[in-house]
Amino acid sequence: MPHRPHQKKTSRSIIFLTDNEKGARLLVDALIQEDFTVRLHPKKEEHLDGRAPDNTDLLIIDSSKFSLEELSTYPRIRSVYTGLLMLLIDNIDEMLQVLLYEQGVDDLLVKPINHLLMLARIRALLHRGYQRITPANLLFNRLEINSGLRRASYLGEELPFTSREFDLLWYLAKNACTTLDRDHPYKSVFGIEYNGYDRSIDMYIARIRSKMAPYHNLAPMIKTVRGSGYLFAAEH
User: Fold this and answer.
1) Residue 144 pairs with which residues in a beta bridge?
2) Which side of the chain, N or C, has fewer Cβ within a 10 Å radius?
C-alpha cells in the first residue's frame, strides 16, 4: 500500500500590532513556537481600523501607553472586524477594563505577561471556534441564528455581534428555556472554570442585549434570573 504523507494541520493566524516591537518579540516567538502564524506590525493609526484579513483567527493589540483617545478607536475596529480581539496593556484600572470589554475587546491581559498564561488564554479564546463540527440553525421569534455561518439576523437584517458575543448568544439559544448559572457558559464558551467573582459574562450579556434592544420582539429574550443566572426565554 503506497505511503500517504502526513498533512500538517493548518496553523492558526494571528496579527500582532505593537508599539514596542523589541519588547513584544518574546511573546511573538512563544506564539510561533506553538505553531501559530504570526504577522507582527507596528501599531499605527492606519492599522487600528480593524481591517484584518478574513482568515485571521485573532487580532492582538499591544499597548504600552494606552490613552482614552485609543479607547475611542475600538468601536471603529468592531464596526469592520468581528473576529477575536485581545488587548495587552500596562497599568490599567478596573473601570477602564470594563469600558474596553464594552467596546468589544474579547480578552485583556495586564503586562508584564507570562507567555504561558498568554498562550492559555489564547487557546481558551479559540476553543469554541475549533469545536464547531456540524452547522446548525435556530429560529426564535424571527431571529435566525446560524452557527455554521456564524450569523444572527432578524427579518433578514444581520445583527453585528462580535465573535465572542455570537458564541455566547448561540450557547444561550441552544439551551433555550433553561436557566444557566455562570459556571456553564464559562466552561462551554470561555473554556475556563468560573472563579466566583469575574463579571465578564455580565458585560457580554449587556452588549448582546444592547444590540437586540432596537427590535421589540428581541428585547426581552435574554432574562436575568436573580440568584441563578441567565435564561434565553423564547419559543421556536
Assistant:
1) 139, 153
2) N
Q: In this structure, what C-alpha cell is assigned to residue 208?
A: 448582546
**Chain position carrying cell 470589554:** 101
Distance between CA atoms of 154 and 27, rounded to whole angstroms? 41
* Per-residue pLDDT, 31: 93
What does the pLDDT average to over 16-21?
89
